[in-house]
Every structure is written in C-alpha cells, then in structure tokens.
Amino acid sequence: MKSIQLVDVSIRDGNQSLWGLTGLNSAQMLGAAPLMERAGFSAIDFTSSTHMAVGVRYHQDDPWLRIRLMRQALPNIPLQFISTGFRFISWQTADHEFMRLAYRKLMQAGIGRFALLDPMHDMEAIIAVARIVREEGEAENMLALTYTLSDVHTDAFYAECARQATASGFFDRVYIKDPSGLLTPERARTLIPAVRAQIGQLPLELHSHCTIGLSQFNYMVAAELGIDALHVALGPLAHGSSLPCASQTIANLRTHGHEAEVNQRAIKSLEDYYFTHAAAEGLPIGKPQAYDAAFTRHQIAGGVLTTTRRQLAELGLEHRFDEVMAEVERVRYELGSPIMVTPFPQIVSTQALFNVIGSERYGNIPDQVIRYVLGRFGRPTAPVNQNVLDRIHSLPRTQEILREPATMTLVDKRKQFSASMSDEEFLLRAVMPADQVDAMAQKNVRGYYYNPALQGVLKLLEQIKARPRVTQVQVKKGDFTLSLASHGNKA
Question: What residue spans in the chain does CATH classification 1.10.472.90 cover?
C-alpha cells in the first residue's frame, strides 16, 4: 500500500462542470487560498484559456492578475493550466511563435504545471507544445491521455501515445483523463498497467468524472494498481458531472488500506467555505450520479445534453430526444469517432440535431463540422466516412472556408495593435472581443476580500440602500438585537 497524492480540481473543472465556469470570481478563489495552502494538495487544477476568457467576459476579472495573486497566496503548490496545444482562447489554431509567447507569459505569471492534451491524440503536435513549454520556462509538462470508447481507442492505442511522449523527454508526468466518466473498473485494470509499462518512473495520475457513477470504483482500482495521484473536487463542486468528492475519496482510500497526503481539517474547512458560498450565491450542489448505460453510447456529458433538450423543447420536438441521441452515436462514428470533449460534443450533437429535424441527413452542415473535416481542429483519429467527406467537399461553403487563413500568426496579429501594448493585454485582445477586454480594463478593483458568510448581510444592505424610504432596520438573532435608524442625512 502506498501514499497517494490528491489534485484539487474545484476552481477550474468543478466550477466548469457544475457552475458553467462562472461560479467563482477572482475574489472568491482567493478567499479559499489560505485553506488550500494548508490542505496538502500536490497541485491545483487552476485555469485554462477558456476559463480565462470567461473571467473576462462575466466578471471583468484580469486573468493574468488572478494567476499572479493566487501564485503569491499559494507559493508551495503548483498551479495547473490545461491546454489543447496550439490554441489560446480562440479555437483557431495559432502558430508556434504566438503560442510560445502565451506559454511564456503564463509561466511568468505563476503557472507551474501544464496539462497538455490534443483531442485527436496528434502526438507530433503535443510533443511540439511540450518542447516550447520546456524552452520557455521551468513548469512541469503532464501528458493527457483522453479516454473515450471507440474501435480506435484501445489500450494499445493509449500505450503507444504514452510511449511516443515519454521518448521525447519533454514530459514530467502522465495522466489518464476521463472527461465523460466512461471508464469502468474492468477497463482500468487493463488500461493503467498498459500505460504504466510505457512511462517508466514518471508519475501516473487519474482524472475520472462522476457522470455515470463509476469514478470512485475506478479510483480504488487505480490505488490498488499503484496510481500516484487522484483528481478530486470539494464539497458542492464534487459529484454530478464533476469529479469525486475529496473527503469521500480519502475515506475510501483509508478503508482500502491506503494513505492520502492531505490535511483533512483544512479540507473540511474548504468544503464548508464552498458550501457557504454556494448557498450565498444560489449555486447548485453536485449530487451523486446513478449509473446510466446510455452515456457509453452517445458519450455526451450533462451540459450539452441539457442544451440539446432545451433546443428540442423550443422547437416543440422534445419527443424526438432519444432519436437525436441515437443519431449522435451514428454521426460520431461517421466523423471518425472524435473524443467527446469540447468542442466536439457541440459539433457532433448539432449535426445530429440537423440530421433528425431536416429533410435529409447532412442536408444542413454547420461551418464547424466543415472545419473539423478539413482538419482545422487537428487530424481526425479515424477516417471520416467517405460519403460524408464527399458531401462536405462538394459544398460551395467548403470552398469559402478553405480560403480562410488556417492559422493565426503572431506577426499578423501584432500589426493590429499598438507596439506599446503589454504582452498580456495583447494576448487577450488578439483572441477576444474588444468590448469585453475594455470592460475588464475599466473595472475599478477595490480589493479582493470575500467572505461568503457575509454575503446575505451585504445583499440586504444593498437592497436597503436602494430604498431611501426605509428609515429603521432591526436585526435579531437569539438574545442579540441590532437597531439602525437614520436621522436626517445621518445613520
């Protein structure tokens, strides 16, 4: 039996899975930092380019400042950035020099670990990214083997990907990333040893979502097989379509004779913090999932599933939901069995919806499907169905898209902005709407103090301030009474 490390995913992946990435702003993240520093996590799954963009768009938070402040608050824990290779915020592929600048600035701000994935498992591309990170700083590189079910994605397939990456010498650790929660304990018993055999002494981690209720079983099997670290979430940010609960994972590990390198008192306080925050902000709490075998066929996680139901309801076609899900399975196979991780679930489900409600299959083909088939998101892992390929290449719209620049270049983007602009601002403006970056830059940041327990009182005071006719307020709790009264212009 060995001691197993835990990686906390609450701020980035838990927030994304359950709260649409909008549930925590910079102040709320920093409010948890003192407890995170004491909890004993080996790393924090902290941000991604999408997470950075959402912070700008919804909270007007400066994502670069957020990283720097969290780095100061957590000097001893690596902050992780998950990257899909040669893309930064935009899904348009960027050239090496643009990405070199992005990775350099991320490391300078405080990112200490990169989880590098390519949805197509294009190992040449991901090794090239790892080389850039290694050349630009001292952060760790972690290879992501993104798990899915298809005829292509066998144990041998993942083992070969791990072998190629390890042979490059640019990776410090590897993790099996199960974003749809499709891994079973039986498959874990063959997949983990197959990958382990190829990576030598590199640490191996497991990241398995709770979508069909099997992740805790997977974690116990992984522990038995000698996994080095497990990825977990805290309190309300666990369960559901997120990852396993930290406290439950610790209890299960210890029951099975393993030890987790954490401070349980600090973890309990962190869970209390997030539960209080969820209550104060009206955010949902993740709940344990029942096993649903349908996910193993369509492989669409909760967010996209909910969106599809809503779209059908708006069209008065909710009764055709099962038909659309069956079509998702067929379309995915025809498109070369892409892993159902953003943006591919959206691409596949949209095409499936059009196929079901249209007069013929592939009678209406969205631009993103065309771009996918043209390789703008990378090389499909398996060949695209020839009939679908011929249909797409015959479209006039395909010829228009072929004339679009395939890659965003640093040189071209630099020409669009002032030479005196900081690199951090440039990287945001190069890929985001100007009005969103302007709103972020104009935000008056008064401070980053946040206490979720005070939010109810603060909201009450805001409401009272908006009602000038209120002249007296009395607050009672047990034997305590607080009375506030206005006297002219004074309170």
Answer: 295-402
What is the CATH number assigned to the segment(s) 295-402?
A: 1.10.472.90
Which residue blocks in 116-233 are alpha helix, DSSP H? 123-136, 155-168, 185-199, 215-224
**How many angstroms separate the CA atoms of 227 and 260, rounded?**
12
Q: Is the peptide bond before 78 cis (omega within 30 degrees of 0)?
A: no
Arithmetic mean of pLDDT over the chain: 91
At position 185, the amino acid (one-letter code) is P
The answer to whether the beta carbons of residues 349 and 327 sit under 8 Å apart is: no
- Would you state the pLDDT for residue 20? 85
| pLDDT > 90 fraction of the chain, expressed in percent and rounded | 71
CATH of 3-281, one of 3.20.20.70, 3.40.250.10, 3.30.360.10, 3.40.190.10: 3.20.20.70
Biggest alpha carbon distance in the chain? 80
Q: What is the mean pLDDT of residues 409-434?
A: 96
Q: Which two tokens stand for residue 150?
A: 């298809």
Could you give phi then psi for residue 264, rounded to 5 degrees?
-65, -30
Q: Which residue has the tokens 């020409």?
A: 415
Q: Is the pTM of this model over 0.90?
A: no
Range with lowest mean pLDDT among 144-153, 311-320, 353-362, 466-475: 466-475
